[in-house]
């Protein structure tokens, strides 16, 4: 399993507790946890029990502002740090259900390509307790994302809408990841790199599927909609995506930024210009 992290140590601790109670058919030695540190607080101190940890210290690419998270490069570094045949990527603010690893592993034996499990969002009242709570209680109280499928446990559902792929919880066989070339490292910071990976899969004719029962429970934390604190990243990464694919990603966010006067954007053309930072918006 591969997780990128900067700060968010409490989230990482709850994730680790979730990994410690995985129901593995082949035994706990079958899983290792690659943690890629992108600066910030020390995640190795007081690490909770769980699968063995592979520590990767990510060096910020030359010329890149330290506040911009090198997410694409960090995920690639995590994949390079393990020899596992199956790569499972899980964001630091997610807790794996006890069956997540086995669901992904079983389906990967039957089908290749991009494999995404459903995500359930925990309310604030329970998110703080995280994996200390009973997994059945987490499952009952987590709210699925309304715009993505929730297959029955053990059911594999092929998906033709590659734009729905997200990288907060997915699995892929190592040889498929190599065929995709990993994440495109032209993307730096927040937004766009996961859709790019999915579009590469579509271009190559690689299947994208939803895996029923491979639940990730998203821990509650404040969010912005649209994510104004990532405005500059989203603009730059959207420009990269447009050059590569001839279409705009993240259109809902771009439309919201345009409505707020933060960007000039032509949804049918090539114009996307940052007009103001969110901090300076009136």
**Helix segment tally:** 9
CATH class term of the largest domain:
Alpha Beta
The SSE order reads EHEEHEEHEEHHEEEHHEEHHEE
Q: Structural class of the helix and strand makeup?
A: alpha/beta
Low-confidence stretches: 127-131
Q: Percent helix among the residues? A: 25-40%
Give, in spatial order, the strands making up the sheet with the most strands. 4-10-6-11-9
Strand segment count: 14
Notes on the protein architecture:
The structure is a single chain. This protein has about 280 residues and is α/β, with parallel strands linked by helices. The protein has two domains: about 1-220, Spore Coat Polysaccharide Biosynthesis Protein SpsA, Chain A (Alpha-Beta Complex); about 230-280, no CATH class. The protein contains nine helices and 14 strands. It has helices spanning about 10-20, 70-80, 100-110, 125, 135-140, 175-180, 195-205, 230-245, 250-260; strands at about 1-5, 35, 55, 85-90, 95, 115, 120, 145, 155-160, 170-175, 210, 215-220, 265, 270-275. Strands 4-10-6-11-9 form a five-stranded mixed β-sheet. The chain has a four-stranded mixed β-sheet with strand order 5-12-7-8. Strand 13 and strand 14 form a beta hairpin. The protein is globular, with a radius of gyration of 19 Å. The model is unreliable at about 125-130 (pLDDT under 50).
Task: Please outline the helices and strands.
Elements: E1 2-5, H1 9-20, E2 33-37, E3 53-57, H2 71-80, E4 86-90, E5 94-96, H3 100-110, E6 114-116, E7 119-121, H4 124-127, H5 135-141, E8 143-144, E9 156-158, E10 169-173, H6 174-180, H7 193-203, E11 208-211, E12 216-218, H8 231-245, H9 251-259, E13 263-265, E14 272-274
Parallel strand pairs: 1-2, 2-3, 6-11, 7-12
Antiparallel strand pairs: 4-10, 5-12, 6-10, 7-8, 9-11, 13-14
């Amino acid at each position: 399993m591969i997780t990128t992290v900067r700060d968010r140590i409490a989230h990482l601790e709850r994730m680790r507790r979730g990994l410690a109670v995985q129901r593995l058919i082949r035994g706990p030695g079958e899983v290792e946890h690659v943690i890629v540190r992108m600066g910030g607080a020390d995640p190795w101190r007081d690490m909770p029990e769980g699968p063995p940890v592979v520590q990767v210290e990510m060096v910020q690419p030359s010329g890149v502002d330290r506040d911009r998270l090198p997410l694409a490069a960090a995920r690639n570094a995590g994949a390079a740090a393990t020899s596992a045949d199956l790569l499972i990527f899980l964001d630091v603010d997610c807790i794996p259900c006890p069956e997540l690893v086995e669901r992904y592993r079983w389906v990967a034996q039957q089908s290749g390509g991009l494999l995404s499990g459903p995500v359930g969002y925990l309310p604030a009242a329970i998110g703080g307790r995280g994996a200390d709570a009973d997994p059945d209680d987490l499952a009952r109280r987590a709210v699925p994302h309304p715009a993505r499928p929730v297959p029955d446990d053990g059911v594999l559902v092929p998906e033709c809408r590659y734009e729905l792929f997200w990288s907060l919880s997915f699995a892929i066989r190592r040889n498929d990841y190599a065929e995709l070339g990993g994440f495109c490292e032209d993307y730096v910071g927040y937004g766009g790199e996961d859709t790019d990976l999915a579009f590469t899969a579509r271009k190559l004719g690689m299947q994208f599927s939803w895996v029923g029962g491979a639940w990730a429970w998203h821990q509650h934390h404040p969010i912005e909609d649209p994510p104004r604190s990532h405005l500059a990243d989203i603009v730059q990464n959207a420009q990269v995506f447009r050059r590569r694919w001839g279409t705009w990603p993240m259109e809902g966010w771009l439309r919201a930024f345009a409505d707020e006067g933060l960007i000039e954007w032509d949804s049918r053309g090539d114009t996307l210009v940052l007009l103001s930072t969110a901090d300076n918006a009136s």
